[in-house]
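Support request from a user on the community tier.

User writes: "When I paste my structure tokens into the form, the page sometimes reloads and wipes my input. The last time it worked, I copied everything first. Here is what I submitted, just in case something in the input itself triggers the reload:"
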């Protein structure tokens, strides 16, 4: 029998009462899986220990030498997300991308009209949609929708939430009714036992970046490193590896190709040229600066909270610094 919201909130309260601060696995080993691009970085950098399995790839031109150092990630214990649910999560994120682009189209049309030749904002959204491979029919449907009577422009909001085990959660909302969206978010957070945070309380734990996600089965690490070097990417983040991973679970892991806004279009173009399928995830993400590892119970509670937040129509994206 499914648990009622009040029972889940009571269970979450007992969890916080008995555990207090987040409990970490004392014997776990966690190395950041980010690939750092630099002209000067060396294996003697404080970011690396002498025992770390560090590899390097060098790109040389007439003027300079670029070197990229990589550290293979290793995570012990239970995975922080059930791999079986990752495909559904990726599909949901794609649906959120289409919804978000649609809202941007509506707002642009409401403010400047349906003609992209005279509406610079609409032209920019259409160009962005092309870069993100958003279907043309979604653009056309929302241009028509914007002219309907009673349709208001959308406003973007960010809400911050304290999760379980010291985890921070950031919620991006695009809504035509602020009171409706904030009430819906507060209700979910309360029912799941989380706590709303004040503006600026958690956002500093994240950094904004343009991201393309590539399945591990669609490209190998060396190929992505070459693209990163050629197209000017900032990082290539490898998917975490868990001791109980199976061959069936591997296809649902993703590399993250991270870049600045200036180089993002060039990177997507390079991926297309190489025949590599990617998922842009709204064209940008909030990436945690220092991911937090929590115990199994906090993991499940946070996952339930984030899943219910993503189900809200006004919510475009949910980010967490949970490892």
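"...and here is what came back when it finally went through:"
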């Amino acid at each position: 029998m499914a648990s009622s919201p009040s029972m889940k909130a009571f269970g979450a309260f007992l969890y916080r009462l008995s555990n207090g601060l987040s409990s970490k696995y004392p014997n776990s080993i966690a190395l950041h899986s980010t690939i750092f691009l630099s002209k000067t970085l060396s294996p003697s950098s404080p970011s690396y220990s002498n025992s770390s399995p560090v590899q390097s790839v060098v790109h040389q031109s007439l003027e300079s030498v670029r070197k990229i150092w990589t550290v293979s990630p290793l995570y012990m214990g239970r995975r922080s997300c059930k791999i079986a649910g990752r495909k559904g999560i990726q599909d949901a994120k794609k649906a959120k991308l289409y919804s978000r682009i649609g809202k941007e189209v509506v707002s642009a049309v409401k403010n400047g009209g349906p003609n992209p030749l005279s509406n610079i904002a609409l032209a920019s959204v259409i160009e962005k949609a092309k870069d993100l491979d958003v279907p043309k029919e979604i653009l056309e449907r929302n241009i028509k929708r914007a002219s309907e009577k009673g349709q208001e422009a959308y406003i973007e909001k960010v809400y911050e939430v304290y999760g379980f085990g010291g985890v921070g959660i950031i919620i991006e909302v695009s809504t035509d009714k602020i009171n409706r969206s904030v009430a819906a978010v507060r209700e979910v957070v309360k029912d799941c036992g989380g706590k709303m945070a004040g503006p600026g309380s958690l956002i500093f734990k994240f950094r904004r970046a343009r991201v393309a996600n590539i399945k591990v089965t669609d490209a190998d690490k060396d190929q992505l490193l070459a693209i990163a070097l050629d197209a000017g990417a900032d990082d290539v983040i490898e998917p975490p590896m868990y001791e109980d991973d199976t061959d069936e679970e591997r296809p649902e892991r993703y590399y993250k190709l991270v870049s600045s806004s200036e180089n993002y279009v060039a990177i997507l173009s390079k991926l297309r040229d190489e025949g590599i399928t990617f998922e842009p995830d709204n064209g940008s993400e909030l990436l945690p600066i220092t991911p937090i590892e929590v115990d199994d119970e906090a993991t499940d509670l946070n996952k339930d909270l984030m899943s219910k937040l993503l189900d809200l129509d006004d919510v475009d994206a949910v980010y967490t610094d949970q490892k």
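Agent notes: The reload is a front-end session timeout and is unrelated to the input. Residues 39 and 63 are 12 Å apart (CA to CA). Helices lie at 5-19, 86-112, 120-131, 136-146, 178-192, 221-231, 261-273, 296-310. Escalated to web team.
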